[in-house]
Amino acid sequence: MRSRLGALLWRAVLAALLVCGIGLLPWLSHTDPALTVLKARSADRDATPEVLADIRARLGVDEGPLRLLGQWLAGLPRGDAGRSWISGADVLPGVLEALGASLLLMLVASAVALVTAAGVCARTLCLGARRRLAGRPGGGSGSAVLAALPEFLTASVLATVVGVQWGWLPAVGWYGPQWTVLPALALGLPAGAVLGRLLDDQLPAAFAEPWASAAAARGTTGRSIARKALRRCVPGLLPNLGLFVVGLTGGSVAVEQIFDIPGLGRTTLQAAIAQDLPVLQAGTLVLVALAAATTVGARLAARLLIGPALRDGALHTLHRPSPPVRRILPVAYGLALSVVILLGLPRDPLALDTAARLRSPSAAHPFGTDALGRDVLARVAHGALDTLLLALAISAIGLTAGVLLGLLPRLSGPLVDTVNAVPPVLAALLVAAVWGSGPTTPVLAVAVVAWAPLAAHTSALLRQERATLHLTATRALGAGPGYLLRNELLPAVLPPVARHALLRLPGIALALASLGFLGLGAQPPSPEWGLLLAENQPYAERAPWAVLAPAAVLALLGALAVTAAGGLRRPRPRPTRTADPVADEQPSRSAESTVTA
């Protein structure tokens, strides 16, 4: 009971710090909120000292941020979140209306994601039900392409082709269920591909457990065994599913912008740009509450699915040594990506040729040219260096931080919820307010949130791994926390979390690209991939190659990451060495006892 109260208090402190940080946004960025509000209200009105002084007096800015924040917090118990600095309307009804639109979009996108995840692991389920999984090579190239699809690019293509040219579904607006289909597809396909890969990674070990063999021997149908294998694997992924739910609610800013959806992500973005603090604080607080509720729901669902085996330490490990996988696919994808980069590096990405605008691919320009006559291959190759290096660095930092914090779930659990409630766009604006805008702003913004899914995955896997029979037996033989951590827990958890980090690599590149697409990342004439997509999107119908080329390279990066992740497996134990857990652990039991607390 005391630990739950401590976790609740820690969660409240983190939420308060986040809201207070948002309340200090104008003062951190050293900008005049009256000037920002004036531009948002009427861009044509002159910013005279008298006009600015009148706005400051009406908003109460001269009283200081602490008094404004105190007044806003005092109204929350009464259901009063203040009034918008831009429109003057009550904040809470508008935020709840935006939340309703985002929740509806999230539900439909989650359904698309679940169907996509089922399609990704359908082959494994069929083979496992027939007991034919032995020696099956890992796949995943198709799911890698889906996972690497930029959400904003998919949204633009669906709106232009399906909505405008074919007229099958509404392209813009938010007036009923039909308007949810295209944005839900843009959001759900990449999320479902990632979830499907994580699930497909664990299913073979579930089908290899003794209960599956015993069920098959008793004549249990393959379909029933497949359902039980799913039930065995899903609890370890529920925390990440909860993160996806919150991310789809508040982080779908680009998609909401393209389809003109009055959702919570778009509302918080507009409030952050206009420094409409009451709306921004209320929207962020709603996202934090949603993240907390989702985490509690995921934890309860995991306990219901696993049953008393989690409490009694009667589980089998899902992370066993696996046979070597074929290396031909990652080598082929890596060579293809290297060829693209090496062919484009000798070319000048900034050379203008207005006479060669929007030229189709040719021998002189294999990827064609953009609206300014610049060579697309050169810009893709030079942009790849920055994007790939930054994505790799952020992935490495996120993996390290995620594993370390995942070992301390009581500390990291509320922190994960709070961080995940901050969309990358809002994180970029907060980073820009503190550090200033520049090329490092998107890097810091993405790095701040990149570790959260890995920490949630690590905590979920450790929770199940600590409840396994072999760990209970090893502990009964006298092994202490340090020995269990080094020789049992980390070797079992690190490979799947490292594979997860590789699966996230295209997503990190996409997050950087999304910030560039929204104008919060690199600025022209930089060849950064997000900026390439943003610059060439208006010409997608006339010159599709200008958009398809960077998107294809992103898909190639995703295929490389997924197939390379398949090679990260738990090493086989060496039978020649017999470990003595008691002798190994005697000196360090007390020092490391907090790890498994």
UniProtKB/TrEMBL annotation:
Q: What's a Pfam family in this record?
A: BPD_transp_1
Q: Which InterPro entries match?
A: BP-dependent_transpt_permease (IPR050366), MetI-like (IPR000515), MetI-like_sf (IPR035906)
What topology in the membrane does the UniProt record assign?
Answer: Multi-pass membrane protein
Kindly state which keywords UniProt assigns to this record, in alphabetical order: Cell membrane, Membrane, Transmembrane, Transmembrane helix, Transport
Its transmembrane ranges are: 7-28, 98-122, 143-168, 180-199, 237-259, 279-306, 388-408, 415-436, 501-523, 543-568
Region annotated Disordered, chain positions: 567-597
Q: Which residues form the ABC transmembrane type-1 domain?
A: 380-566
Compartments reported by the entry = Cell membrane
Source superkingdom: Bacteria
Give the principal location in a single coarse category.
Answer: membrane
Question: Compositional bias (Polar residues) at which positions?
Answer: 588-597
Its family remark reads: Belongs to the binding-protein-dependent transport system permease family.
- Note the PANTHER family from the entry: D,D-DIPEPTIDE TRANSPORT SYSTEM PERMEASE PROTEIN DDPC-RELATED, OLIGOPEPTIDE TRANSPORT SYSTEM PERMEASE PROTEIN APPC
Please state what the protein is called: Peptide/nickel transport system permease protein
**Biological source species:** Streptomyces rishiriensis
